[in-house]
Amino acid sequence: MPTLRTLLFLSLLGTCACAQKTTQPAASDDTTSTTLGPVTNTHDHPAEVAGLGPVTATAFGANLYTPPASVTAEQVMDSIRAAFPGKAIYLDLWAVWCMPCIGEFPASKRLHGQTSDLPVEFVYLCTSSRGTEARWKSIINGKELPGTHVFVDRLVHGEIMDRLRANSYPTYVVVKADGKRKYDVRRPSELSRQRMQQLIK
């Protein structure tokens, strides 16, 4: 029978981030979390991203890409930006073994629905490190998570992480329509439609 100390340890373990940093810094405007409303899923697909290989489209509004390892970090980022002119990009950097990453997907799905009329695209970059393409697809399909999904070679993903000043999973970055970046932004469960509007201004 597990002791109380063991149960407390297991409970805390699930709330930790998956790498060096364990918490997200609070935004300066408000430190309280926002409960998101009901899901609005229009099943509309994002624009296709050229240069990342063939696309697999799902019934729930997701486009999946598995670019070859020869594609560079710069090509991945440039291709994504070129596919969504005039729009901001909410980047989600994650891994299939990162439980806090996956735990944010329901909130991300709700936020996606609430902001569907805003000029912002949700893009999920998953590292191939310690994961498989089959596991990646299984998680996305299981969560029915809309948006643009890219399964990135671990070395390329690592370079993208460096460019985006990221050293842990999950990490969230906003790339504005003009190319300016906001680093280490709030995770989906801490965002509302109003806060997203402020982020992408």
UniProtKB/TrEMBL annotation:
Family annotation (CDD domains): TlpA_like_family
GO MF annotation list: isomerase activity
This protein's UniProt keywords: Isomerase, Signal
InterPro entries found in the cross-reference section: Thioredoxin-like_sf (IPR036249), Thioredoxin_ResA/DsbE_sf (IPR050553)
Signal peptide per UniProt: 1-19
Iron-sulfur keyword on record: no
Identification of the protein by name: Thiol-disulfide isomerase/thioredoxin
Species, as recorded: Neolewinella antarctica
